[in-house]
Design a protein that fits this description.
Blueprint lengths: L1 H28 L3 H4 L5 E6 L1 H4 L4 H10 L2 E4 L5 H4 L9 H12 L3 E8 L19 H18 L6 E6 L12 H6 L3 H12 L4 E6 L5 H16 L6 E4 L2 E3 L5 H13 L3 E10 L14 H9 L8 H20 L4 E6 L32 H11 L2
Helix pairs in contact: 7-9, 10-11, 13-14
The structure holds alpha-D-galactopyranose.
The site of alpha-D-galactopyranose (GLA) has 6 residues, from loops.
Length: 378
């Protein structure tokens, strides 16, 4: 007995060091997104308050090892950070900033002006009547100075205005436009710059590859630039699918925004593999039932064949980003893993979606390796 435990004691440190060597070997072999794209662009991820407050350590491990930029998924939106006229919620944002600083990550604030997730008090003079231009401008200025000012020098970039244009290139008829007029956009940029002259300021929107919308945004940015309004980058949201955008449209948009002297940020990337509910509407009576099943084709797991299709799609898109890495400054995935994606509940609730690079078990998917391979193949 004594002999055996003596032997164990001698062997223990050897076994432990061997284990350590094997574990670190394993780690070195495991590629990371941020290392793969080092020198090209930031690889970012959207985080939620649950993660930041320490309730999802597995996600946090992925965030720390894989990404070098962070965007709050919701907690810097107006309804969360400034829900009532005299109430600001800074606690989660402060923790987010502390975490980002400790990890040396580039942090983005999202978003200062948007028609959604903005409380209705913002647009009201009193409980009933719509506000007027001067009052709403004062509310906006105060919000921007308070929020951007608090994180001056810490949050490196802000989505200043989100989703102001329709796909046909017209300004959306939001309450911002209705009450203030077109210059709500330039005011927001000017004030954000005054609040933190060092922060990069972005215009962020979806379908930014659609030629009509792209041309309208380019024209609008040129006007802003001719007036000396500070704008530094374009955020292309990137909620894309297997068939859209075309690589030609994507590339043409990146180049067009680059020609303005702006950086391009792919701000909310996820590539949906589920069918589009707005297509294939039929008159069959069993249609609704059949449709429900057809709309959620992979309730248990994504088949290998689809993993491959998604990997190829991710790879071809990243090849466009790599080709224009002089313009593309950041690519941010909209969530850590498939289980956390908004695609599970939009545009249909309760589907099992697979749009991201990590699966529900926190494991890298084939698409993850395909994305990294795009750099190795250059
Ligand atoms: C838009 C917004 C994001 C988010 C997504 C859906 O793209 O910019 O903040 O709300 O919709 O998750």
């Amino acid at each position: 007995m004594q002999y055996r435990s003596g032997l164990l004691n001698i062997c223990k440190p050897i076994i432990l060091s061997l284990m350590l060597i094997f574990t670190s070997l394993g780690r070195e072999d495991q590629p990371t997104l941020k290392a793969a794209f080092e020198g090209k662009y930031y690889i970012g991820v959207a985080v939620n308050g649950y993660q930041i407050l320490g309730n999802d350590s597995k996600s946090m491990e992925i965030i720390k090892t894989q990404f070098n930029s962070l965007t709050p998924e919701n907690f810097t939106k107006w309804e969360r950070i400034h829900p009532e006229p005299d109430k600001y919620n800074f606690a989660v944002v402060d923790s987010f900033v502390k975490f980002g600083e400790q990890q040396n990550m580039f942090m983005v604030g999202h978003c200062l002006v948007w028609q959604f997730q903005t409380p209705s008090w913002v647009f009201k003079n009193d409980s009933k009547n719509l506000s007027d231009r001067d009052v709403l401008l004062a509310v906006l200025k105060d919000h921007i100075f308070t929020v951007v000012g608090r994180y001056k020098g810490k949050i490196g970039g802000w989505d200043v205005v989100n989703e102001a244009f329709s796909d046909d290139g017209k300004l959306k008829k939001t309450r911002w436009l209705g009450i203030i007029g077109e210059d709500y956009i330039e005011k927001a940029f000017v004030w954000a710059h005054e609040a933190d002259p060092g922060a990069e300021l972005y215009y962020n929107d979806y379908n930014m590859y659609v030629p009509e919308k792209r041309d309208a945004v380019v024209k609008f940015v040129r006007e802003l630039q001719s007036k000396g309004v500070p704008i530094h980058g374009i955020g292309m949201q990137g909620h894309w699918g297997l068939n859209y955008p075309s690589l030609e449209d994507l590339e043409a948009a990146i180049v067009a925004y680059g020609e303005l002297g702006l950086s391009v940020h792919i701000t909310e990337l996820d590539i949906n593999v589920l069918p589009d509910p707005f297509e294939n509407q039929g008159a069959d009576i069993t249609f609704r039932f059949k449709r429900r099943k057809a709309m959620n084709p992979y309730p248990d797991a994504l088949p290998d064949s689809m993993q491959m299709v998604q990997s190829e799609r991710y790879a071809e898109i990243f090849k466009v980003f790599n080709k224009h890495s002089d313009i593309v400054e950041r690519v941010t995935l909209w969530g850590v893993h498939d289980g956390l994606s908004w695609r599970n509940y939009w545009p249909i609730r309760g589907r099992t979606a697979y749009p991201l690079l990590f699966d529900r078990n926190y494991q890298p998917k084939p698409a993850f390796y395909a994305v990294i391979k795009t750099v190795k193949e250059e």
